[in-house]
Fold each of these.
Amino acid sequence: MSGPSKELVEAEVAIRIVIENLIDGQEGFQGIGESLKDDVLKRYFLAESLKRAEFRGDLETILHQEGVKDIKETGTAAGAFVRIWGDLKSILGGSGQSLLETAEQAEHKTLEAYGDALNKFLPRPVREVLSEQASHVQKSHDYIKAARAGISG
């Protein structure tokens, strides 16, 4: 009996990378949201943290349905660095703009992970879920970029 095809293995790896980026985003959005002084941005970031958790759950469910049993993702090393940097900025009194810049960079990295996954062979339902999530992340990236441009210093 042969194992899964090379394409399916590549798709699983790509989805795991997206999940790792979602973990980074969930934790990063929460940390930045708690550090922001602007109530509207604070609520936005905390809501986006929950959205990343939802996206992660959706993708983990897909992997479970495909027979993947061991899903113990922890986020990426780069994401840990970004979270630590964001935490350090907030501890040192980093401006809202610098926190938003950190978030924008993280969203860009997440979009790259989605793009890589969407370039793999994927069953149609998986592709649709990833496409919808990527569209939301793109809108979030654009919102953060616009918010950052609207904050001085």
Note: The two ends are 61 Å apart (CA to CA).
Amino acid sequence: MISHRFAPITVALLALALIPTVIHSYRGLTIDDGLRVSAIPEVLAGARSAPTDRRARWVESNLAATDWIERNYRVGDDNIRLFAAQSFDPKRLYHHPELAVLRGYEAVPSGRAVLPGREDVPVHLLRMRRGRDQGVGAYALHYDGTYVEKPLLFQIRTAGDLLFSGRKAMTLILTADLSGSVDSPETAPSVKLLKAAVEAFEASRRAEEPAE
């Protein structure tokens, strides 16, 4: 039997423990950052594109994402694939996204770099291979106004916050191309297209803001 003098403390602790349950189980609270990957244009950095045959059902099932695009951009003689998606289940996106998105390629993580001209955007590099052809893949992860450099540290840092706040969307923007070199990412066509996609994504919020 609990002493009456401990009752207020017990009630307070139980109420505190219920906060995450109410937020996630009953309310399903999410926080919209106003950014949309679907706003990335079909013509990007002067390159025209065509959609791939990836199905919305696959993206929703595997990545828990409904706002997404996948296109092939034609840059000279190369086709650069661009895949971008937002999900309120961040782990679906930051945990080796190349394994899900780039099937048909051999994509091996190959360190990180900084997006040329954007020191605030860390880029995760991939060494691409298909048959005898080799190239570069690259992706950026956006969350709560910043870009994620180290997913493991991100997971640790946000674990406590997510217990007491609504879920926020993570965005994956990934490009892949069978040309270029991971040793010179600043000249790789896929990295250049990634920069254009990142900036178009960032501009999507401004485009939706009402004019004063």
Note: The helical segments are 7-26, 56-63, 91-94, 97-101, 151-164, 189-208.
Amino acid sequence: MYMTYDDVYEEDLGLIQESLSKYSGEKAWEYFKTLYEDPDGCPLDENDNYMEHGGVNCTVDGLLSKNRIKKVEGFNEKFYETFKKYRKHPIIFFPSEHKGGINRTRATVFGDRIDYTLFDIKRHCAGEDCKMAESYELEKTKKWFESFDYDFKKIVEWMGIDGIFVNENLDVYDLEYNDERTIEEYSDKYPYDWSLEYYENVKKKVEEFYEKRC
């Protein structure tokens, strides 16, 4: 039987509790990291099914990694509650590429920011210059875009993030703010260390997704 996203997610929750019961401080964190399995690459059910479009399997892009949660919350009961809440339901899916795909490239290009990633994807769909063009031309990713006819609206509706991460005009919300401000152009820099405001606003968007789609 395949280990599904839910299977690994539940095992990780148990591992967090085990780590905190056995050790404290950084020793507990190191124990957890050693045994941790990332659920994002797992199938969604026991029949080895993935989120798919146009014959292309897609894997989860977890918006809040364990490292990001730990940096803000520490490794404690708060970490457990945050991981449990915000990693329960997959949200964002991108084509599963062995190397150089959107999931991995956005970390180096945009500091792992999903808002600028979506902005870049929108520009690609419109035939405009974009920063992750090489990723978009990979075989499976290109086929994925073609299956949507390079229509950004179709992509965000397929993910179910319309009206949440983008507004009714398909403008991408700038998650550095919580005032419906949208991204109009690229930034000068994309630090990998998020601000606390960005981290909290990502959490709010996840909550909004759960409320509307789950």
Note: The chain has one domain: 5-213.
Amino acid sequence: MPTIYEACVTSIAQAIAAERAGADRLELCTRISTGGLTPPVPRLVAVRDAVAIPIHVMIRPRAGDFSYSRAEVDRMRRAIGDAREAEADGVVLGLLTADGRVDARAFRALAPITRGLSITCHRAFDELSAPLESMEELIELGVDRILTSGGAPTARKGADLLARLVAAARGRIGIIACGRIRARHAAELVAATGVSEIHAHLKSTASMRALARAVHAGTP
């Protein structure tokens, strides 16, 4: 299977540029400096109208930790409904308990509204103390993929855990590598870890195009 390049974008212009550069899918968010928050609905609608490739929407109501109150989970539920209505293809979220485990109860509370959408667990995963066991929980909860840098500041530094996750997943859940991935080392990272998806937030069209070519060609 070809490796997928998911471009993280925050604006209509970035979304159009990413599609033209060869991205296979978009993650749409806002406030990237905080790790990403839910984008405004009008922006999602405009991006959906502007591009043909799949769009996965960040569902994160605030910056900070990933342990959410019932009121915040309700806000997430409404945001997922908005994403569905705007014809998004998937949602990106992460819910942890106060002691840093997968919040299965919150995931299940959102299950009815996420049904039919592709679900990605974002980098909240990197805060879990038992990633392999937590991956099994996410599989049981119906999550389709995990966005992770292997618990390290960059994907290259987290390559060992990325490879272990891919091996343990055995195709039951996708592993998306993220964390300062650039064209010059993308092919090496894919070969070393076996990941089938790469995620990056790049500001220039040239950088997006270079990464797309490296990912799709399998060479840096």
Note: The two ends are 18 Å apart (CA to CA).
